[in-house]
Design goal:
It is a single chain. With 350 residues, this protein is mainly alpha-helical. The chain has a single domain, classed as Di-copper center containing domain from catechol oxidase (di-copper center containing domain from catechol oxidase, Orthogonal Bundle), CATH 1.10.1280. Helices cover 35% and strands 7% of the residues. Strands 1-8 form a two-stranded parallel sheet. A two-stranded antiparallel sheet has the order 2-3. The protein has a two-stranded antiparallel ribbon with strand order 4-5. α3 packs across α5. The radius of gyration is 19 Å and the shape is globular. Bound molecules: 2-acetamido-2-deoxy-beta-D-glucopyranose (8 copies) and copper (II) ion.
């Protein structure tokens, strides 16, 4: 009965829904991995960063396979944020990254997630295992006073860094693209600008519970995405601006995947969405709402813009993430993490 209603709603997607996923990879929290596994994951990320990209003839800044992902995100940013398919696009994007780590760089697990609620107090945030300088992604950047920096449009309160990361496996990693929507070659160090108090307020369990209590996808998505003011930011911006502050690359809406922590942050967001879907599978597994156009949400940033509501048949452009991957994918193909184009699950609900 359940399968029937799903099938009727999906029309031509029926064969995809029927595809099997009997052995999903399991995504675990970073601290559930042992030391060997953590180092192995970091090694796989570095492997992607050293392999040749497939989109370097399209995007001048692409210097590695990892950069394919950065460039695709930069190029699609204006079409996949503050829209109804925000979660769906990022779900597929992360799944492609997970496949690349596994198939091209030997990672044996699922894409790890960072459950930031476990670190969300101002005093403990910087001690998160994800910032460890040996078994994590390194910590903060050197302090830079950005109070009078005219290129900073929104100042994050309590930021403690700003410059190149000081330690860890990515200390000399070269970011090649950005800022903003530029995919030109622009080599520079990886920056972080962690703001423990701000991050904790936006990433704590109260924020997650409030988002999970949304009773339809439209509200869930609006709560998760938040708005662009410091007060209106929620856990999506909490991860980006809480770690990236004023000048950290992960705070750049476009080039944010340049910091490997992007993928752990978004994996946790995907887990919160999956948790929300799982709480009422019949009603929510295939529920999607919201506009197809940025800023058409009733946030009123820039006034009204013309839009249409997305449906399961809406086609999202994903770009050159895999040499054999599709350029376009329908929302309905990525609603179920264990069906359609996907085959992964999580060790725990949020
Ligand atoms: C870490 O986990 C792997 C399984 O993924 C296991 O083979 C290995 O023995 C573990 N290492 C330690 C030090 O516990
Ligand atoms: C990037 O965008 C932000 C926000 O719109 C703006 O403040 C900043 O000046 C831009 N940076 C560059 C280099 O264009
Ligand atoms: C890592 O951090 C610890 C504690 O701050 C420090 O003693 C150690 O030198 C650092 N190691 C590296 C490789 O940066
Ligand atoms: C990073 O690069 C600097 C300058 O080239 C070098 O002195 C330093 O040893 C490098 N650090 C690591 C951890 O590779
Ligand atoms: C990049 O952003 C600038 C400034 O907002 C805009 O004029 C330009 O059209 C954008 N380019 C692309 C490729 O989206
Ligand atoms: C989360 O942060 C908000 C804002 O600072 C605060 O009101 C709330 O009590 C916090 N929740 C927890 C569980 O600490
Ligand atoms: C989009 O859907 C909302 C309900 O979720 C509805 O209020 C709105 O009128 C729809 N907009 C369009 C352009 O169809
Ligand atoms: C960049 O994004 C636009 C909008 O989705 C798309 O039409 C275009 O094909 C993309 N370019 C590449 C090279 O992926
Ligand atoms: Cu994004």
């Amino acid at each position: 009965m359940k399968l029937l209603s799903v099938a009727v709603g999906l029309f031509s997607l029926v064969p995809l829904v029927a595809s099997t996923c009997s052995d999903p990879v399991i995504r675990k929290e970073w601290r559930a991995l042992n030391t060997t596994e953590r180092k192995s994951y970091i090694g796989a990320v570095k492997c992607l960063q050293s392999k040749q990209g497939i989109s370097s003839s399209i995007f001048a800044g692409v210097r590695s396979r990892y950069d394919d992902f950065v460039a695709a995100h930069i190029n699609e940013t204006d079409y996949v944020h503050f829209v109804g398919h925000f979660h769906a696009w990022h779900r597929y994007y992360l799944a492609q990254y997970e496949v690349a780590l596994r198939d091209e760089c030997g990672w044996a697990g699922g894409q790890p997630y960072w459950d930031w609620t476990l670190d969300a107090t101002p005093d403990t945030f910087l001690n998160s295992p994800v910032f460890d300088n040996v078994t994590g992604f390194g910590g903060n950047g050197y302090y830079i006073d950005t109070a009078n920096d005219a290129s900073v449009d929104i100042h994050v309160p309590g930021k403690l860094g700003g410059g190149c990361v000081k330690d860890g496996p990515f200390v000399n990693y070269t970011v090649t693209m950005g800022p903003n929507n530029s995919t030109a070659y622009n080599p520079r160090c990886m920056t972080r600008d962690i703001a423990p108090g701000f991050a904790s307020a936006k990433l704590n369990s109260t924020m997650v519970e409030w988002t999970l209590s949304a009773d339809n996808y439209l509200d869930f998505d609006i709560r998760a995405e938040g708005d662009v003011s410091i007060a209106g930011m929620t856990y999506h911006a909490g991860g980006h601006k809480g770690v990236g502050g004023d000048t950290g690359i992960i705070a750049d809406l476009y080039a944010s995947p340049s910091d490997p922590l992007f993928f752990l942050h978004h994996a946790n967001m995907d887990r919160v969405w999956w948790t929300w879907q799982s709480a009422d599978v019949d009603a929510r597994l295939y529920q999607v709402q919201g506009p197809d156009t940025k800023f058409a949400y009733p946030f009123d940033f820039y006034g009204d813009v013309a839009y249409r509501n997305v449906t399961l048949a809406y086609e999202m452009h994903v770009g050159s993430l895999a040499s054999n991957g599709p350029e376009w994918i329908r929302i309905g193909e990525v609603m179920d993490t264990k069906g359609g184009k996907l085959c992964y699950s999580f060790d725990k609900t949020a």
